[in-house]
Design goal:
The complex is a heterodimer of chains A (about 220) and B (about 290). By secondary structure, chain A is an alpha+beta fold. Chain A has one domain: Alpha-Beta Plaits (2-Layer Sandwich), CATH 3.30.70. Chain A has helices at about 20-25, 65-70, 95-100, 120-125, 140-150, 165-170, 185-190; strands at about 5-10, 35-45, 50-55, 75, 85, 105, 135, 175-180, 195, 210-215. Chain A has a four-stranded mixed β-sheet. Chain A has a two-stranded antiparallel ribbon with strand order 2-3. Chain B is mostly helical. The radius of gyration of chain B is 22 Å and the shape is flat. Chain B has one domain: Formate dehydrogenase/DMSO reductase fold (Up-down Bundle), CATH 1.20.1630.10. Classes of the chains: A alpha+beta (about 220), B mainly alpha (about 290). At the A-B interface, strand 2, strand 3, helix 2, helix 3 and strand 10 of A face helix 3 of B.
């Protein structure tokens, strides 16, 4: 079996938002929609305060709450663990959005542009009307993965088969791959470090790991 | 405030969605009370018709809310897990049987189709309760929102729906000059039950560490809700028994206040108290190790 997961090394992330920009550029998401979002958190109380950058987005849960509530069947889970949305089927009821404990889903009701009523040159090229009136979210760049796998490439190892946010990361904080493959980068990384996942008490079994300590850097 | 680093009010479901829970809850339970009323010899058709119209109103409002209304038929594609699909699926026979029950009770059907009105009325009541249950489960599956997923939200909103439906039923009976004493006593019990469930629900939220703005939203409505939606109708209902000369007017007032109180509760739960908790990390990253630069 294959189970694709994302790994973010919180020790390495510098909060540059390059992953966010790469995702927006590649997917043409509307203003305010960030499938890959990096939270700039201040944790603790003065004088013991740390700044932490937390990349978030769809956790591609093994037990995704969004899947069960979706009335249209637009939300689907692939055998490789990727949770995807069929934008031609989604009715935009937002039931999935209120079900997701990670706030990873967005619903945009009307076409908007970043600067006023007219699209920028970039938006003319990249804007995707499929995302208006439906729920949308990160899909681990499933198109890139599928094309890469079809060429015999390995997601997470070969950039041509790896999500754009991972490829764009300037500090090497983001990793991607098959956690069921003991030889994959993510398996080795998680085996050598200490890590956690968010809101595991929800029973969602998220596919997004956060490294916080360990030898490997 | 930054996304994810502060509690955030959900903006996916607004007043239109609240109207679905308001109209659906009140209407479906009104169908239940109207059926019991029919068995007790009370007028059925007008109450059941209003019940159906309330459910329809809620569904139209939610239809106006969805992003792709012309794809609404896709709603029926996942009955195996989705309570929204099940709600829609129950609504179809609810309207079909309910319309038949209303026409039958109003003697508007041709003689060949004459059925004892109690049978379609009771079937409509069962479908109404099923519809109400689906709505409760829809709220309960909203895992991002402590105010909705709290287990006590289900009995609270359920009892509130039954109270609202009974409130409308009593109002209608009062308008028709009828004081159905047994139903009045049931309303009294339901109002007390809803007040207790409200207290339990808010305490449970506090215990489970619900976002502070959620608790603030409830604190802001607490006194008004208890006085206007519970104490007032309970006193009015008590006076109905004590002052039979004023019973009709008091009953209409009691029914209206019990109903509006429930609607207010749902409006606040859906639109003002539904905060998504901020992200919290269990452990801080350990930086500055050799090789980290």
């Amino acid at each position: 079996m294959t189970r694709y997961v994302m790994v973010a090394d919180l020790r390495r992330c510098v909060g540059c938002q390059t992953c966010t920009a790469a995702c927006k550029l590649a997917n043409g998401t509307p203003p305010g929609v960030q499938w890959r979002r990096v939270l700039d958190m201040e944790v603790g109380e003065y004088p013991n305060v740390q700044r932490v950058f937390l990349p978030t987005g769809c956790q591609h849960c093994a037990n995704p709450p969004c899947l069960d509530v979706c009335p249209s069947g637009a939300t689907q889970q692939r055998n490789d663990g990727i949770v995807n949305i069929d934008y031609d089927v989604c009715i935009g009821c937002a039931n999935c959005a209120v079900a997701c404990p990670y706030g990873a889903r967005y619903v945009v009701d009307e076409q908007q542009y970043a600067y006023g009523d007219a699209p920028t040159d970039d938006e003319v090229v990249n804007f995707n009307p499929d995302y208006v009136g439906v729920a949308s979210k990160c899909n681990f760049c499933v198109d890139v993965i599928d094309e890469g796998v079809a060429k015999g490439l390995t997601p997470g190892e070969d950039p041509e088969a790896t999500p754009r946010c991972v490829n764009s990361c300037i500090s090497g904080a983001m990793s991607f791959g098959d956690i069921d493959d003991p030889e994959s980068t993510v398996s080795k990384l998680l085996g050598e470090t200490q890590h956690y996942r968010l809101k595991t008490n929800e029973g969602t079994c998220p596919g997004f790991y956060y490294i916080w300590d360990g030898e490997e850097l | 405030m930054s996304w994810g680093t502060a509690h955030r009010l959900q903006s996916f479901w607004d007043a239109r969605a609240a109207c679905n829970f308001i109209g659906g809850g009140s209407g479906s339970s009104l169908l239940f009370w109207a059926a019991l009323g029919l068995i007790a010899g009370l007028p059925y058709a007008s109450a059941a018709l209003i019940g159906l119209l309330l459910v329809a109103f809620g569904l139209v409002m939610v239809w106006l809310e969805i992003g792709k209304p012309w794809r609404a038929f896709n709603l029926f594609f996942r009955p195996q897990t989705s309570w929204m699909t099940r709600e829609g699926t129950v609504a179809l026979p609810l309207f079909a049987v309910g319309t038949f029950a209303v026409l039958s009770a109003a003697n508007l059907l041709p003689p060949l189709t004459s059925t004892p009105p109690a049978i379609p009325a009771l079937l409509t009541a069962v479908l109404g309760l099923a519809f109400l249950y689906c709505q409760l489960r829809i709220l309960n599956t909203a895992r991002s929102l402590p105010a909705w997923r709290e287990p006590w939200a289900m009995p609270l909103i359920g009892i509130s729906g039954l109270t609202e439906g009974l409130g409308i039923f009593l109002f209608l009976m009062a308008v028709m000059g009828i004081v159905p004493v047994a139903f009045v006593l049931v309303a009294w019990v339901l109002l007390i039950a809803r007040a207790f469930l409200w207290q339990i629900y808010v305490k449970a939220l506090r215990r489970s560490g619900a976002p502070r703005p959620t608790l603030q939203a409830f604190r802001a409505m607490d006194n008004l809700f208890l006085i206007a939606a519970h104490a007032s109708p309970v006193v009015l209902i008590t006076l109905v028994i004590i002052l039979p000369d004023l019973a009709i007017m008091l009953l209409a007032l009691a029914g209206a206040t019990a109903t509006f109180g429930g609607w207010y509760l749902k409006f606040v739960v859906i639109t003002r108290a539904a905060y998504i908790p901020k992200f919290e990390i269990p452990t801080l990253p350990i930086r500055g190790q050799p090789g980290s630069g």
